[in-house]
Write a structure and sequence with these properties.
Chains A, B: GO terms for molecular function: ATP binding; metal ion binding; UFM1 activating enzyme activity. 2 copies of one chain form a homodimer. Chain A is of the alpha/beta class. The first copy, chain A, has helices spanning 2-18, 23-37, 63-70, 94-103, 136-147, 163-174, 195-208, 251-254, 265-284, 316-327, 329-347, 370-378, 403-422; strands at residues 84-88, 108-113, 152-157, 187-190, 212-217, 223-229, 244-246, 292-296, 384-386. The first copy, chain A, contains 13 helices and 9 strands. The longest helix of chain A is centred in the middle third of the chain and has 20 residues, at 265-284.
Chain lengths: 423, 423
Amino acid sequence: MEEEQLQALLRDLDALKQRPDDPASIDRMRERVVAMMNPAAGAGSRSKIKDMSAEVVDSNPYSRLMALQRMGVVENYERIRDYSVAIVGIGGVGSVAAEMLTRCGIGRLLLYDYDTVELANMNRLFFRPEQVGMTKTDAAVQTLSGINPDVVLESYSLNITTVKGFETFLASLKARSSHERSTGVDLVLSCVDNYEARMVVNQACNELGQTWMESGVSEDAVSGHIQLLVPGETACFACAPPLVVASGVDERTLKREGVCAASLPTTMGVVAGLLVQNALKYLLNFGQVSPYLGYNSLKDYFPTMEMRPNPQCLNPACVQRQKEYMDSKPARDAAAKAKMEAEASAASECPVHLDNEWNISVVDDEDAATSSIRSTADVLPEGLVRELPAADLYPEPPAAASSSAIDDDLEELQRQLDALNSS
Amino acid sequence: MEEEQLQALLRDLDALKQRPDDPASIDRMRERVVAMMNPAAGAGSRSKIKDMSAEVVDSNPYSRLMALQRMGVVENYERIRDYSVAIVGIGGVGSVAAEMLTRCGIGRLLLYDYDTVELANMNRLFFRPEQVGMTKTDAAVQTLSGINPDVVLESYSLNITTVKGFETFLASLKARSSHERSTGVDLVLSCVDNYEARMVVNQACNELGQTWMESGVSEDAVSGHIQLLVPGETACFACAPPLVVASGVDERTLKREGVCAASLPTTMGVVAGLLVQNALKYLLNFGQVSPYLGYNSLKDYFPTMEMRPNPQCLNPACVQRQKEYMDSKPARDAAAKAKMEAEASAASECPVHLDNEWNISVVDDEDAATSSIRSTADVLPEGLVRELPAADLYPEPPAAASSSAIDDDLEELQRQLDALNSS
């Protein structure tokens, strides 16, 4: 589309050269150039969409997402527009997570980073060479707003580990946004690459009682993990700290001169995918939200575990959230009980199994004939044929006695017994 | 960068309006527009790089990949430039796989698809709204050449399930490329979305004896898989076909009117990541290449399995490859034995363990003192402190007899025994 605009510009320039006294054509060119400078609002990009539609047409960017409802995976997909997600660290994992949420039509995204794009980042997805020198948050907003103008994007180019940066971070998480349906954020995704920043996200989320998810990739680029942290309910990041940490110096200075960590777009893409999938399950209430999921790419091994909070945690806000969680246990139990009872009474009014994947039906004993059950399963929709001969079609046993004959024998036996007893 | 070019264009237009009789300025504008139409060659993008460098500078796009060598993950990362990979199907999985391989610096990529970009594809990664209407292969080449100009890209906008398309597909897989170091392709990645196309890729790879990897995502968007297929050695795609397939009609027509499959950028991103990770392990010879890996996102469950070829496979080329594989067994066994012996003799000349993660050292019995071992492990590099008090530092047992005292006792006992025996 931009190609077309440039072609038109070329034609105008050629025409102008033939007839140099046409100031109107200069104005027209000016308009084209301004339109190209604002690609999100220009031709070629799409305009905003008020309501998500499930209509199946090529021009509907949400058709494949709304299909999740029809498939029974998600009850109400459009609720995603009500949610705000903060992503801290817009690097190899965070940028891809932001793009995934943007394409899924999340309501609002808050992006935090203080770094700029470098050519050395090009071995991971998302950033492009022409963005080198831009702040990562600005470059992300540029790309994401072009992909989906429906998403409200907020960009914070700051370092959350400074005092001022932390204050802004905390305030932005609490703030009621301009986005009409949202207050504060619903989830924080940590995609940072160092211990200090993780401890800062942990501190903020413990203070706010904010649920968050942690992610990380190893220095040798071949493993990673994601983790769900619910203040007071699960272990916080300080509950089980690493045994050795940097002290009094910037972690980066610990690394040897001229040495850098390895990274791969594959590992980071997988970790971002697992992270955002977990976030979607959490926000849209489907599947099982994983408390911890590891990824060892050398062996394709995916360990899981759960971590309870540490009552001796050194983070006072964590201990406070643990106390509140314990105090609210009776109320939680009562609510769970009420919900179970409501579901049980609702269930008694409708069939136990609404779907019937295996075509199981209750057959009246009188009419029972195994062949009739098989013939129902055998009927395929038009246009489908079996690829292999049905191997489970055993020939009928040659000497098969009919079930009614067996019944007759039993009845005859019972009559004889009754006769013996009464005699 | 393009922003700057547009700004310059605006200034030129404004100047031209003041002084309309300046044809030179029109030529200058024309040059700017042409430069913008070819962004890969323009300012802002990077030039080609002759050799991959491990130098750690922000301007080196390969520093984080070459670091895989220093970390001991990959023996020779730069070999990736010698490899050619064909990707069939440039959709939600194939396009991301192509971007990952491009950013990893693969030598040559062959891209096959016959479809065009639609807004309905925007819920998956890679394509942008302004590319709507372009063929997927052209749009992919546009984006990928901008990301990494070192990769040789070949675009095939064709349907491999037609007779003519299949011929071109087969010929392109066999062709010696213009890329100096490559003949044919080293790996085929199938990222198609239907059974017919998978059977065509299977047929081509069986005929050529070409190793390939299959990928797929379920219609409800919440699960997927990848699979390695080595003709003759593993099951081919026809060895264990699905029980029910479309016959005589286009699979697409089987789908109900107005109904479309669901898709998610998360599931497709994870499958693309697992697929390319497996491809990297296969090409660069590290880790364990997975024969089959499933992904159930609702439960974060990742099943694995292996499938031997079916001697009764209906695909004649598969049966032929199986025969060749059996016939070559003695030669394979001999080669494996020779390799093992060579490694064994090499191993006898150097230490068994080159790395020593746990700081284990052999201590001379004469000088043995447990405290000295502990003190070595206790020394941390400068700038590191322990986060927790060392819980494994038990107080010394109060009545601990020194080991030399015990030795003295034993020696005394031995002397007494000797005395008894000699008396």
